[in-house]
Predict the 3D structure of the following.
Amino acid sequence: MKRCARCGREIDDAASSCPSCGGSEFARPQPGTKTISNRRPWAGVLFSLLVPGFGIARGDRFGLAVAWFFGLELGLGVVAATFALESLPFVVGLATGACWLMAVLVMLYQSYRPGRMTFKHWAAFAGVLALSVWLPSPAELVAHPFKMPTGSMRPTLEGASGRGDHLIVDRLTYRFCSPRRGDLLVFLTRGISGLPQDQIYVKRIVGMPGERLEIRGGSVFANGVRLTSADGLPPIKYATADFMHRDDGPPGSSYAVDKEGYFVLGDNSTNSLDSRHWGCVPRENVYGKVTGIYYPFSRAGRPRYPGEPDGAANRSQQVRSETNRTSAGAGSGH
């Protein structure tokens, strides 16, 4: 018996080429060389499921294996970005994800071949697997999955009752721009007095840094101006409470937003523990924003409060509203 130098398959001495890869270079098996049985091509599929492309490297096709590994890792990052970016239709993420899955199937098909595992193969496999577990992938830097644990954001996000919404958290946008009013902010509770520590919360941004807010008649006023859907807020009737965090204004209605913080409220206003109770979210606690629901499938898509306008149109109105408010503030000396 002799072994194909390309894929490692053992074949008869009389054969002139390898029936698996067509290679014409052969070598005699070295005594003591530990290999996985060449009659088990499915082993390559198992290796590629753990480390993308490694089943191909097992057949000594290292260049192709490296290309598959980085291609699939970067491709998954692109899929995460298309799901996470609110400006893109949710169907774009679905289409991109389907293309990525097809590429995975092609890679696994190419991994279904005889191969060998020498000491160098095992060392490379263990090293890449350890790095994959330890280092964050491109997809993790772009988006993060999260399950809504409570009903404080109903009806936009379902939580306490039933299965709860499984969410996509956009971790990319805030690396380049600041949070905006109306965003479904995801933040860490670390260092916020009155909240359980080292947990992740979701609330809607209502007050921006440095503003003075007042809740009156179910509406929110920022520096004396009533906030509407043009400012990014859905038609929610907000409640007050006597024990809420406040400054010198009327009991339970007036709040001063920190210059480096955000005032956040739950959409389920009468059943939400939010900035009315424990104050503002510091800028350094911001983790990302919710831009999608991926499960249950009946609710998959961009989260919307009932009656809330389309995201793109709403953002356009919001920019005009913020511009007008800024101009008015400058003219009045505020």
